[in-house]
Structures are given as structure tokens and as C-alpha cells.
């Protein structure tokens, strides 16, 4: 029997298999609202057999959006349409997850098909960060957060978790990767503070711990909480795997159930040796040395590759991104490739492979 299609118990949530739809920005919202695109995009991946379907990064404040077209959950008004999505996802036998995020100094940018990069001045909004260091020469200098403003950010994550519960989500992932605000506090390359949120490892990780604690305060004990980390900045003197392991050890007793192990995104000139499964080692090391469940993500495209990752104990789940954009029904076809019989949606049963 293969392991990829075995269940995984996370508190009172049981995933039917180990395949997870990774958060992927769709740049299709207006004022943070989900719409029919999100319903069809996320719903079709649930129909396709994934066990857990994550939304894209949902901004916890308007200023925390990567772009004006990002999903948001900073208002109670965002809840009703999100509820429609979670209901449909769950009707397909999957669980609905949401990634809560703040883009920090990488906010206020244009959608990729509009060229990316900072917005024109007339459309832009001020950005915030642990220190007044821009992402690159074309980005504006962000405002350094005061401790009072940090407390407001922490509270915004908690209120967004409350809304996520109202919307029917069953898993939350906190985005502390890819150079966004929480990651900016973690890394010595972007956190130049001299107060209790900067300097030492203990201080630089303080915001993440506070956000986890505040999220857990609004998120039921019976539901899982994930954290996505960039396990390394791929830069000398930056955040690294040893730091990620140490942070994971701190987060487990705070109520974090799984570390989603990505990398990079903090600085524009990092040299990332991308290739098939290039981040799996991070998931394996954190799993072994921190005693945490982990997720592997990044250029995982083949069923046998995904099966090997979980079978050999390198990770507990596999998160797929671009491959699920290419093939929304990849999990169903992967089950056939691995000789595992899974139920297809009854509407599609006539197309199920046999033999």
C-alpha cells in the first residue's frame, strides 16, 4: 500500500491523503473580496482529489496586500463569499484552509500581468517593515513599525483568524516566508532593530511567536495551525535552516501542528539552486530535528516523487502549486499511477481509468 494516499490526522481534522493545494496568488480580487474565480479555482482542485485546499495569501489588513488584486480577510464583509467556497470544497470531501499574511515591504505592487514591481505613485500605499530598508532600488523605503503598530499587526492576525472560523475554514496557515512581513522580522538581513523585536534570535522571532499565540487565542484547539517558513534566505548572514529548526522547536508548544517548508523570497539577488524537490531536505531536517510534522513544496511534479517523499519520512504532506494549475485533477491521476483506487466524483465516474 502506498503512503501518499493514506490518511493523516491533525487534531480533529483527518486528511484523506497527503496532497495539499499550496497557496497561490490569483490576483483576481477587488477590495479583498473572493469571487466566482476563486470558487471555481479552489473548488476544482477539491474535485480533483486534493485533501486540503488552501486559498492564496489573504491579507489581514488592506496595507498588507501584495497587490490591489489580492484576497483579503480584514473585514467581516469578506466572510460570506469565503463561506460559499469552504462549503463547496467540503462537499467534495476536501478540507478548506486559508493562509493569513501581511506583505510588509513587498506590498503595494502590481499584478504580474501588469508588469509587477511597485505601483505607480498615484495608486500606491505606504508600506511597513521591521526596518526602513527597501526590497530593492525601485521599491519605496518602508516605514519602520513602532511597538504600538506591531501590536496592531498581531491583533489583525487574531481577528482574521476569527473571521476564518466564521467562514468555515478548518486549517489556518500563517505566512512567515517569501520575504513578507513576518519573514522580514526573522531575518538579520531585513531586521536591523535594536529593541525587543530585533537583534538576537529570541527577539527577531518574537513577532512570529506573538502572532501564533494570538491566532491560537481565536482558533479552536481542535483545528490545526500551520506556519510556512522560508527555511533559508540563500544568502550569507541571513535566516537559515538551523534557525528554522530552532524556531520550529519553539512553535510546537505554542500550538503549531505543521511547518510548511519553502525558501527564499527575502532579497532579490539570492542564488537559489532550484530543481526537482530542491526544498525537500528542509522538510526532512525540520521534521527530524524539531519533532514537527512538515510539508514539502517546490518542483514536485511526479506521483512517484511525491510518494517517495512521504514514504521515506522526509515530510508528512506534499504541497503542489504550479502542477495543480496545469492539472487540477493530478491527485486522481496520481492514485491511478500508484495503483491505488480512489473514488472519483460521481459526475466524472465514466472517465475513471480502469485496469
List keywords for this structure.
355 residues; two-stranded antiparallel ribbon; single chain; eight-stranded parallel β-barrel; 12 strands; alpha/beta
Let me know the number of strands.
12
Instruction: Please describe the biggest sheet, giving its number of strands, its sense, and whether it closes into a barrel.
Output: 8 strands, parallel, barrel
Strand content: 15-25%
Instruction: Give the helix level as a range of percent.
Output: 25-40%
List the strand order in the largest sheet. Answer: 3-4-5-8-9-10-11-12
Shape: globular
Mean pLDDT value: 97
Indicate the radius of gyration in whole angstroms: 19 Å
The CA-CA distance between the termini, in Å, is 17 Å
Main structural class: alpha/beta
Provide structural commentary.
Helix content is 32%, strand content 15%. It contains 11 helices and 12 strands. The longest helix is centred in the middle third of the chain and has 20 residues, at 147-166. The radius of gyration is 19 Å and the shape is globular.
Please summarize what this structure is.
The protein is an alpha/beta fold and 355 residues long.
Blueprint of the fold:
Layout: E1 8-10, E2 13-15, E3 19-21, H1 36-47, E4 52-59, H2 79-91, E5 95-101, E6 128-129, E7 143-144, H3 147-166, E8 171-176, H4 181-186, H5 201-204, H6 206-218, E9 225-230, H7 241-251, E10 258-262, H8 280-290, E11 293-297, H9 303-311, E12 317-320, H10 322-326, H11 330-337
Parallel strand pairs: 3-4, 3-12, 4-5, 5-8, 6-7, 8-9, 9-10, 10-11, 11-12
Antiparallel strand pairs: 1-2
Amino acid at each position: 500500500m502506498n503512503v501518499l494516499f493514506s490518511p493523516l490526522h491533525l487534531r480533529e481534522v483527518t486528511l484523506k491523503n497527503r496532497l495539499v493545494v499550496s497557496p497561490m496568488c490569483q490576483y483576481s480580487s477587488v477590495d479583498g473580496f473572493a469571487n466566482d474565480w476563486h470558487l471555481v479555482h479552489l473548488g476544482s482542485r477539491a474535485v480533483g482529489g486534493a485533501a486540503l485546499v488552501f486559498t492564496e495569501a489573504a491579507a489581514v489588513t488592506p496595507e498588507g496586500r501584495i497587490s490591489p488584486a489580492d484576497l483579503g480577510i480584514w473585514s467581516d464583509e469578506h466572510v460570506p463569499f469565503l463561506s460559499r467556497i469552504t462549503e463547496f470544497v467540503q462537499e467534495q470531501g476536501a478540507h478548506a484552509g486559508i493562509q493569513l499574511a501581511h506583505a510588509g515591504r513587498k506590498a503595494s505592487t502590481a499584478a504580474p500581468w501588469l508588469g509587477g514591481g511597485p505601483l505607480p505613485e498615484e495608486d500606491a500605499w505606504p508600506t511597513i517593515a521591521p526596518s526602513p530598508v527597501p526590497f530593492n532600488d525601485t521599491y519605496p523605503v518602508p516605514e519602520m513599525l513602532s511597538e504600538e503598530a506591531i501590536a496592531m499587526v498581531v491583533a489583525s492576525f487574531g481577528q482574521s483568524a476569527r473571521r476564518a472560523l466564521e467562514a468555515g475554514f478548518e486549517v489556518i496557515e500563517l505566512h512567515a516566508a517569501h520575504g513578507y512581513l513576518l519573514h522580514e522580522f526573522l531575518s538579520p538581513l531585513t531586521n536591523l532593530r535594536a529593541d525587543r523585536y530585533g537583534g538576537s534570535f529570541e527577539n527577531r522571532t518574537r513577532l512570529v511567536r506573538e502572532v501564533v499565540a494570538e491566532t491560537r487565542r481565536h482558533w479552536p484547539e481542535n483545528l490545526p495551525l500551520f506556519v510556512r517558513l522560508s527555511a533559508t534566505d540563500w544568502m550569507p548572514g541571513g535566516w537559515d535552516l538551523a534557525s528554522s529548526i530552532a524556531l520550529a522547536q519553539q512553535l510546537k508548544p505554542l500550538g503549531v501542528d505543521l511547518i510548511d517548508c519553502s525558501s527564499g523570497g527575502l532579497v532579490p539577488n539570492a542564488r537559489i539552486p532550484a530543481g526537482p524537490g530542491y526544498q525537500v531536505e528542509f522538510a526532512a531536517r525540520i521534521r527530524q530535528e524539531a519533532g514537527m510534522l512538515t510539508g514539502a513544496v517546490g518542483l514536485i511534479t511526479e506521483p512517484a516523487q511525491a510518494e517517495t517523499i512521504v514514504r521515506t519520512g522526509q515530510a508528512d504532506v506534499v504541497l503542489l502549486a504550479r502542477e495543480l494549475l496545469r492539472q487540477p485533477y493530478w491527485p486522481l491521476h496520481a492514485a491511478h499511477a500508484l495503483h491505488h483506487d480512489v473514488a472519483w466524483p460521481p459526475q466524472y465516474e465514466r472517465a475513471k481509468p480502469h485496469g
